[in-house]
Amino acid sequence: MDISSILQGGYQHPLSRSWQTRRTLTKSMFMYPIFITDDPEASVPIATLPGQRRWGVNKLEEFLGPLVQKGLQSVILFGVPFSCVKDMRGSPADDPHGPVILAIRKLRALFPSLFVAADVCLCEYTDHGHCGLLNLDGTINTAPSVERIAEVAVNYAKAGVHCVAPSDMMDGRVKAIKRGLIDAGFGNKVTLMSYSAKFASSLYGPFRDAAGSAPAFGDRKCYQLPPAAKGLARRAIQRDAAEGADIIMVKPSLPYLDIISDAAELAGDHPIACYQVSGEFAMIHAGAAAGVYDLRTMAFETAESMVRAGATLILSYFTPEFLEWL
Ligand code: PBG
Ligand code: ZN
């Protein structure tokens, strides 16, 4: 055989296999998405997301304490209000007594070393379930949407969050949030992680169940990106980097590895995050339960594919497992 045919000599040992990896998975690469509800004592399993629960603020110490002990370094919070009055502008999003603001304060007090991010969106808090404010005809009204989303982000910053992560996909919101943070004195204190290339995916179903954020009518296709739109995704990544995003995110992850790779090329001087979303997590669990593969092996294979594509940060419901496995 020709010399140039032989590759296997380079990866015949576990250690030499590990040297074939340019970047390896570490605990600090994982950010754990958690759902906070407004019953302070809640600990309610989410049927479509194996092992995940809706938590009340009074349960956060017993829930996260052991994970922080195992090396958990960051979380991202999603609010799931049940007892509030939702309206057209998503007023409960930054209610000072609402679950997200209470959880930010609680986590900062409980775990000084934990990096606390908050998703910023209106869909959990609007009566229509869309991510922005609407015109009378049901289309997005961009300018007031962006203004309201920036206001919510600044109020999370005032509560002490380390990072705000807008997932709404309104045009111009990154610039408005960055401006708002700077003007309120948080320019050098709060990270802006933009869901930049967020696609209109069928993989958000379990999340919408968990968060009660399905739209009351229509869909999100006029603001989330069409799944086949590589060019739009590349433009959104470059726009958000230019508007002041500190971290660029791609979402979902597994069907969009090429976009993660594009982000790493286009915004190579930024950290690149990807979100292994609820449907990806449920899919991996379902496949394992059906005997298609071993759960842990597949969890590693998917997370490693994201790092290989260029991700430096992975938002994943597998975070507690990876803290055990790594
Ligand atoms: C809300 C939001 C969604 C997710 C994160 N923020 C759902 C959506 O856009 O419909 C999805 C997360 C997941 O599926 O795990 N804007
Ligand atoms: Zn939303």
Structure, explained:
Zn(2+) binds at residues 121, 123, 131. This is Delta-aminolevulinic acid dehydratase. Pathway: Porphyrin-containing compound metabolism; protoporphyrin-IX biosynthesis; coproporphyrinogen-III from 5-aminolevulinate: step 1/4. 5-aminolevulinate 2 binds at residues 278, 317. Keywords: Heme biosynthesis, Lyase, Metal-binding, Porphyrin biosynthesis, Zinc. By secondary structure, the chain is of the alpha/beta class. The chain has a single domain, classed as Aldolase class I (TIM Barrel, Alpha-Beta Barrel). Helices cover 37% and strands 16% of the residues. It is built from eleven helices and ten strands. Strands 1-4-5-6-7-8-9-10 form an eight-stranded parallel barrel, surrounded by eight helices. β4 (74-80), α3 and β5 (115-120) form a beta-alpha-beta unit. α7 runs parallel beside α8 (257-266) and α8 packs parallel to α10. The longest helix has 18 residues, at 142-159. Residues 121, 123, 131, 167-168 line the site of zinc ion (ZN).
